């Protein structure tokens, strides 16, 4: 069992120093010179940067943990590094952090704090990775496959097949990860086309009340197939822009809770047109003809919190 663990440590090292750098090179060729027809098929199947980077970090972590378990290396204390080594790792960590933060949007929503997080991670990770990479060399690979002690040819073949199978498994895992990341990113792109209602007011309405919906990606009425709907069907619109919709509560709706959403046609997978729905929002429709009750009380109480535009179009504020 311990020999298998040692083999895992060794062949993870082989994959890290031979295969992953090659994938990095192919990736940068793909994004910088996509017109290279001679390598078009190879470049198309090359994993993207996120998959290669995550695989590098994950495999390095596994290799380090197994090496520590087998006591093939010891953790490197940052404080014990030479001054030149500290400067080197600071510069390299800062360079990688800026690339990831600026060009690949890693933690960019956290602003400069995200950059600091990435920098601190790599400042501690890179020395440990360097220690792992220096703990293995090609002589150890050779000794694992063909040990100095004479063994039957069948044992040598077994060691070689073990190494090849492990490399194939690692390579398959990288491509499987890349496929998952691409599918996730594609899903995000599709979802980014969905309309989203972020606010609506008033939420308690009478017949004839004008309601304002605000959000994003509503589309432009007349240019695309988009409709505002509720359970009874389509809704007539007073104003429609990509970020705002205004409509009037019609007289034929039933009192009570009303759910409203936007339906819009978007381009989905394989350039097919797909009808999608936004999130649903609720209104409470009350009548003016039932005498004064808690519904009317709640309606006028909400006026204190409504936007000036909502008040104005409903006649509660001057033009």
UniProtKB/TrEMBL annotation:
InterPro entries: Ig-like_fold (IPR013783), Ig_E-set (IPR014756)
SUPFAM superfamilies, A to Z: E set domains
Membrane-traversing stretches: 7-29, 49-69, 89-107, 113-133, 154-177
Highest rank taxon of the organism: Bacteria
Protein name: IPT/TIG domain-containing protein
Gene3D superfamilies, alphabetized: Immunoglobulins
Keywords of this entry: Membrane, Transmembrane, Transmembrane helix
